[in-house]
């Protein structure tokens, strides 16, 4: 598995960005959902 391959680098960056997006999304939802249900 070559780490110099731009395709592998892109996939890694995409997954890293997507996991960060999910982390922020879950944090956002955990703040908003109690406000909605109260």
Verbal overview:
The protein is an all-alpha fold. The model has no long low-confidence stretch (mean pLDDT 82). The chain is 84% helix and 0% strand. The chain is built from one helix and no strands. The protein has one helix spanning 6-37. The termini are far apart. The chain crosses the membrane at residues 12-37. Keywords: Membrane, Transmembrane, Transmembrane helix.
What does this entry show, briefly?
This protein is 84% helix and 0% strand.
Strand element count: 0
Question: Order of helices and strands, N to C?
Answer: H
Q: Major β-sheet, in short?
A: none
> Could you say which structural class the secondary elements and strand pairing correspond to?
mainly alpha
Shape: rod-shaped
CA distance, first residue to last residue: 51 Å
Residue-averaged pLDDT: 82
Strand content: under 5%
Number of DSSP helical runs: 1
- How large, in whole angstroms, is the Cα Rg? 16 Å
**Unreliable stretches:** none
Estimate percent helicity: over 70%
Note the topology:
Layout: H1 6-37
Transmembrane segments: 12-37
Keywords: Membrane, Transmembrane, Transmembrane helix
Features:
about 40 residues, mainly alpha, about 85% helix
């Amino acid at each position: 598995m070559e780490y110099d391959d731009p395709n592998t680098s892109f996939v890694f960056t995409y997954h890293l960005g997507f996991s960060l997006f999910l982390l922020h999304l879950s944090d956002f939802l955990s703040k908003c959902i109690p406000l909605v249900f109260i």
